[in-house]
Amino acid sequence: MSWIPELAGGKAPKKFVDTSNDKVPDPVIPNRMVSNKSANQPFLAYKEYRAKQEALHAAWLEKKKARDEKIARGEKVGPLEPDPTAPEEVTLKGFLKFLVIALVCIALAGKFFSGSYTWDYQSKWLQLKTYWPTNQRLFSERALAEYNGENGKPLYLAIDGDVYDVSKGKAYQPGGSYHHFVGTDAARAFGTGCFQTHRTHDTRGMSESELRGLAHWKKFYADHKDYVKVGRVQHPPIDPASPIPEHCDPKKAKAAKEEEEKRKKTDHQEL
């Protein structure tokens, strides 16, 4: 359709000139001609680049030779400029610089596209207080019980001695399904599932599976993006002669009693 502008009184388009048959000297093999077609352009351009690099290197060698001659004559000389053709080695400093620049670019892109430097990714590991805990403290059981959401105080719970702020959790608010965990260390309940009767830190007699369940919940709170550790709770020592809390499941309670009686008989026989 290139003839339409010409019919309308415009300028005629430029005529196509086939240059595929143009020949240029082969940069590798002497006395040989090669086509100047587009497929050969990268090869020809690389040869030109190599020629420029060789010329720069030769000029640097001349400067180095002249400098060495001045040094041999005892003349003062300045520092030798680096070879412009020498490959640059990636140092640790250079890698760290690249990493910082990349992180800054990613953060700025996140702010531009999503309005958040972290691309709306929420994690406790992106919060400064995770690495710089300035509000860690030691609680007594009485002091911990006061952090139940009343009188404007936050919601704290403890699990196996570690105290976490769970104020962001809806289930821990007054009337929530997990509010009974607030203000106390219910480590045993996390492992046994007896939420009403095992709200205690006493873990004596727990089975291996129950202890694994407790470990799971400890990791859950430690890794949660919204729950931050605020300290430790100091419990009074447990009297080893005191009875072990009975399981809320009758079958498991019966099995625990049988196991305890069996253990006592074994200890008595050994004595």
From TrEMBL:
It comes from the Eukaryota. Pfam families: Cyt-b5 (PF00173). This is Cytochrome b5 heme-binding domain-containing protein. Belongs to the cytochrome b5 family. MAPR subfamily. Residues 15-25, 246-271 have a biased composition (Basic and acidic residues). Residues 1-31, 233-271 are annotated as: Disordered. InterPro entries: Cyt_B5-like_heme/steroid-bd, Cyt_B5-like_heme/steroid_sf, MAPR/NEUFC/NENF-like. Residues 139-234 form the Cytochrome b5 heme-binding domain. It comes from Gymnopilus dilepis. GO terms for cellular component: endomembrane system; membrane. SUPFAM superfamilies: Cytochrome b5-like heme/steroid binding domain (SSF55856). SMART domains: Cyt-b5. Gene3D superfamilies: Cytochrome b5-like heme/steroid binding domain (3.10.120.10).
